Every structure is written in structure tokens, then in C-alpha cells.
Amino acid sequence: MRILITNDDGINAPGLEALAAIAAEIAGPDGEVWTVAPAFEQSGVGHCISYTQPTLIAELAPRRWAAEGSPADCVLAALGDIMASSPPALILSGVNRGNNAGENVMYSGTIGGAMEGALQGIPAIALSQYLGPRTAGLADPFEAARAWGPRIIRALLDRADWAGDDGHALFYNVNFPPVGADGVRGLRVAPQGRRAGVRFGAHPYVAPNGRRFLWVTGGAQDAQAAPGSDVEALMAGYAAVTPMRPDLTCAATTRRLAVLLDEG
After folding, report:
1. pTM over 0.85
2. Is 96 flagged in the annotation as binding?
3. Are 226 and 193 in contact (CB under 8 A)?
4. pLDDT digits over 163-210, tens only?
5. 43 annotated as ligand-binding
6. Are 184 and 177 in contact (CB under 8 A)?
């Protein structure tokens, strides 16, 4: 199998090295793993693409490229140029340093890379490692992802739905809990949740030269979310798999609003 890997933490991120090992296990001895990842960290860029400016790409080694752009840019670079003559059969994005569950999904460049793959018609999976006190002392904080990643990816490739519905692309979001490999209790399929009271914000900062800057701030990652959600599964020690599609329509409200507003 030919696999493309990318991330949003950058080409030198340890999570990308973990993903390369996972991808190599999936690809097999006769497969290929291609890396096209951001030259610099792109956390929080979501599904951003560099639509108004060109993207510089550079080959660092055989099958290893860096792009001065977002994860979605990296996928476009791979499919439109680097791997155009032999596209990948699978796209993996991650392993992100930190969870991409709950409200984090909407901001995540890791998710953006997988989403672009799905929009291009290629099976895609985002992978993220939740970090916390129980991973801080590990020699490898990504050991849960390394141990469980191949198993979950194989299960999705063998048994999951990849066709989607209503013409919408489908991809999968996989999060590993904030524990070591031996602490993972199992796997749960769960919808995206939202942590209670958690929002991103902006904190002002005045530099010594008097210029004003803003730091974007996040909320507590251990805040509670709805029972059965991805956040709740992770906090309970389970790996969480969430099917996703790039369609932000609220179906329930669409039906109610149509009754009230449709004319003719």
C-alpha cells in the first residue's frame, strides 16, 4: 500500500515520526510511505489552504518533503505534484501532540489534512495523542498511539464505511487517551462532544517597546463533556473513533426552518 502522511506540528515533530512507524506497519514490506508535512508548526490552522499565495516545497530525502503551508496544502502538494503520477491509497494525518476531540476539532490542522484527503476522494484518518500527567513521565508520550494505531487503522480499512452518504466525503478522527499503552482500556466509537464552558479566547500582551499583541488561549482540556462523547471516552481511558464529514449543516434545524420559511 502507498500511504501519504502529514501533520500540523511540523516536519520535525516526534508525533510525525511515530506516524511514520505506524504507516510503515500498515504499508507492509512492499508498500511505500511518503511524507509531505509543514516546514513549520501549523497548529490551529484548521482546513486553511494557501489560496492567495504559492506554496514553497522542498525535498529533504527520498519520499520526504516539506511545504511552507498548512496540512491541507501538503495534501494538495502531494496529490497535485509530488505523487501525481502514483497517488496514495491512504492518507494519515498526525500523530498530533494533544487531543483533537470536542471543540478542538473545529480548529485542528490535523483534522484539516484528513478532511482535504477525503474531499479528494482518498480514505483519510486523523490521529491525535491526548497528553496529561500520566504521559508526562513516559520515555515516549506517543506509545499509546504506536501500540494501538495500526490495530485501529486496520479495523477501519477492513470494516468501516468509506462511501459516506448524500455525496459527502467521509473520514475518521482517532484520538488516543492520556495514558501509556498498557493503560488503554479499549476502543469506543463516539460522536464529537464539547467540553462544558471551554472556549478559545485572546489575552492581550504589551511588549517592552509598547506594541500590543494578543495570545490566543484555550480552555481546560479535562473539563467534562456529554456522556458517550469522544471527550468522555478519552477521559475514561478509551481510544475514541469518530466518523466525520465536511458538512456543517444542522439537519434538525434545516427541517424545522423549512417548515417555517420555505415558499413556493
Report:
1. yes
2. yes
3. yes
4. 877 778 899 999 999 999 999 999 999 999 999 888 989 999 999 999
5. yes
6. yes
